[in-house]
Write a structure and sequence with these properties.
By secondary structure, this protein is an alpha+beta fold. The protein has helices at 5-12, 62-84, 109-124; strands spanning 30-33, 36-39, 90-101, 131-137, 146-154. 30% of the residues lie in helices and 23% in strands. Helix 2 (62-84) packs across helix 3. The longest helix has 23 residues, at 62-84.
Length: 159
């Protein structure tokens, strides 16, 4: 698979595109439909495990959660690459949806999801500017603090 400008930018930022996180149930990490790739919700898995678990605003600080959201976005990019082969095919990130496992009084979900949004902006520039939803939830799979899914539009297929 190709390594292009997007992966060069990741390397410049000191980041490596991880292996695609295997599904936890019956679904695909990413699916292409026409010019779009939809990712499944990506947990902040690092080498097969969660670096931290718990609720944001209780066991997990908002700062930690923001870093975890960036890991989720990196995992989402890996899922996109698994479908299209080259991240340079991303015309733009259309939408980011993030879920934050929140302590009952935690209201900083948008700040947590800035971790994902900032990573996508750093890596993709203007193509990384997107619409977003940040949702507080009671619990996520494996007691993950955050989960992120993305929708990307692709450039036309090469001839």
């Amino acid at each position: 698979m190709s390594t292009g400008a997007v992966e060069a930018k990741l390397a410049e930022l000191g980041l490596t595109l991880p292996e695609v996180v295997p599904p936890l149930a019956t679904y695909q990490p990413a699916v292409r439909s026409g010019a779009y790739v939809y990712t499944a919700g990506q947990l902040p898995m690092v080498k097969g495990s969660l670096p931290v678990t718990g609720k944001v605003g209780a066991e997990v600080s908002p700062e930690q959660a923001k870093e975890l959201a960036a890991i989720c976005a990196l995992n989402a990019l890996a899922a996109v690459k698994s479908v299209v082969g080259d991240l340079d095919r991303i015309a733009r990130v259309v939408k980011v949806v993030g879920f934050v496992a929140s302590a009952p009084d935690f209201t900083g979900q948008p700040g947590v999801l800035n971790g994902a949004s900032e990573l996508l902006g750093e890596v993709l520039g203007e193509r990384g500017v997107h619409a977003r939803s940040a949702v507080g939830v009671a619990v996520l799979p494996l007691d993950a603090p955050v989960e992120v899914e993305i929708l990307v539009e692709l450039t036309p297929d090469p001839a």
